[in-house]
Amino acid sequence: MDFYFGLAQLIGVHTLLGLSAYIVLLTGQVSLAQAGFFAIGAYCAGMLTVLAGWPIVPALGASALAGAVTACAVGFPALRVKGLMLVIATLAFGEGVRLFFFNFDYQIAKGDIKVGPLGGEGFRQIRYFPEHGWSTLEVMLFVWAFVAASMALLWWFDRSRYGAALRAVGEDELAAQSVGLNLTAVKVSAMTVGGAIAGIGGGLYAHYTTHIEHSSFNILVATFAIAYPIVGGLRNVFGTLAAVVFVQAFLVEGLRDLGDWRNLLFGALIVLAMNLRPQGFLGRRRRA
Amino acid sequence: MLELKGVSRHFGGVRAVDGLDLEVRAGEIVGLIGPNGSGKSTTVNLITGLFPPSSGSIRFLGNDLATLPTHKRLQSGIARTFQNIRLFGQLTVWQNLWVAQNSPEDRARRGFFSRWLGGQSGVREEIGKLLEFSGLAGREDELAANLAFGEQRRLELARALATRPKLLLLDEPAAGMNAEEIAALDERIRLLRARGITVLLIEHHMELVMAVTDRVVVLNFGQKIAEGPPAAIQADPVVRKAYLGGEA
Asked: Using an 8 Å Cβ cutoff, are B143 and A284 in contact?
């Protein structure tokens, strides 16, 4: 059973990652920076529980804040670039964050061992859950509480005038300005909310794996983050969830028995899915 | 209300607009006509701030617009439609109108959170009126992209009205319309005047311009070549040579 709970934890965290890209994508920004915010959240929460002895919930709050502040700071220069240029710029940011953690040492002695991030070796012993006797089921439920809250928040946004403004900017910036929408406020706020969600996701990820290192936040993670809402469609947040389940439960775990063939099939099935549902799993097809 | 003084805009060596003086007084319907490439759309884009003028000043209600970004100009009471319709196609008709409610009145009436994250109940009546005005009642849940061409034009006008404009810039609103639709548009523009909205109408369709405007300004090569009541403009030999004659 623990295997399935573990898989559900992973799906939950990847859903948060996908949702963080979803809201940014609504405004028409393709961001590969989400893995960077995810990494910042992971290291932030890990250091707070391990080194500072914080409880998990305030540590995740700090992760959300760290992700949001960084994303807001990335959001302003990102306004000046569009399309492929934005992809490259945000990719550069994400890689910059990864390389920072590759070189980041901050260890203190705890009992007879040293704990904390140690450059390329990573950050081991993030043992808040086992130390406090949480079962895998409890951790899974904890993760999913945040997933549910984030999905509810974005669902609410989608039904509000703010959500309409996000999509309006994503469709036509010129027309959006021409009805009095402030592009800067709309795009940077979306980036900030996305950063907060990715930060929480990172904090949860650090604690359920208990060991993070720079390579946990590489370009593959950034690509997954943006692929989920694209594969799932932008109609609503459930598309992103469906895409995460499709990729992580079916393609990664379900096809594990196929060995090396899995990777080949993985790509082929995503291409097939996108051809069958070009507007995403839950996307709304335009009537011709 | 709107005052352009010596406004020029150069693109490289091309003088798209060249030393233009233009005044639109409150309550007027002013026509802006001229051959293709004479600088009409550039003038609209200068007024709405898509790009700054190379020289000259643009004032609206006594305030210099030079330093205001586009969204602030449009919040201050200027609205526009586009020559090639630019709706938010993946939003519903209702959402297209809802998202445009950014006027000072709307901001004063509801708090920040209620405006952005609140429900639709507080604005239902007003959007209902806009739907009624544009003949789109009952279509509010349709995606804008799925509307017929004429409906899209009407929705774009309604969206501009949702910003509660004092001055409305219509950039070729009759383009692609049939005679029946143009007659309905004519009627709608007159209704706008009755509501106290000032209109700057850019149009090629001369019958419409002659029927609804109080005054016509004629551009050619970015310069104003004539200005006056529609009947006088129609008779003006300079205008006939540059524009009207060419069409007949």
From this structure: yes
